[in-house]
């Protein structure tokens, strides 16, 4: 009887740990989680999962690959209050001797990819405001160069990101990790603006009103 009770307790604890650690479940009720697990994946997700599996990819225990792909697809369709896509996505692949090493490398590469996307967008918006800020040629050149070189700094500001989809593949004695991450677009845009604003303050002599005009978007 005691052994049975221990077994039940163990299963409950493992389930709680899995749900708490899984970003998909972190903020959902038990009913929502149960519905998520029981719902059938879409045909598109099944087709994509089949293609990945054919290439030798697999996922860690938990939701099936089909459901993880479904969750990614739903996230790609989410919009903010303005009707624009809510999230930005980035993917990266890394190979390492251990799963942890490869996963960390892939995650950092994905963050850099994400930072590059938002850096390009924010730099273009700053470029549009250069004329309105009435910068001279030297100031305009400095602003353009600093904005263009901000990718690494933006990546550092992103911090920890939970992958939406993580796939693994064994390659000889190594392991390949393919990661897809998602990040709220409005949040990362503000982080990028703040990062570039800080760099401009430190590396130029721009007056505050010119700086405000540049970052007014």
Please give a structural write-up.
- The chain has 217 residues and is α+β, with helices and mostly antiparallel strands.
- The chain has two domains: 39 residues; 137 residues, no CATH class.
- Helices cover 60% and strands 14% of the residues.
- The protein has a three-stranded antiparallel β-sheet, sandwiched between helices.
- A hairpin with a 2-residue loop joins strand 2 and strand 3.
- It starts with a helix and ends with a helix.
- The N terminus is likely disordered.
List the quaternary state of the chains: single chain
Number of helices, counting only DSSP H or I runs of 4 residues or more = 9
Give the biggest beta sheet: 3 strands, antiparallel
Distance between the termini: 66 Å
How many beta strands in the DSSP annotation? 3
What is the average of the pLDDT values? 86
Domain count, please report it.
Answer: 2
The amount of helix comes to: 55-70%
Proportion of residues in β-strands: 5-15%
Cα Rg: 22 Å
Query: Unreliable stretches, pLDDT < 50, 5 or more residues?
Result: 1-26
Categorize the overall geometry: elongated
Order of helices and strands: HHHHEHHHEEHH
The order of strands across the largest sheet is 1-3-2
Category from helices, strands and their pairing: alpha+beta
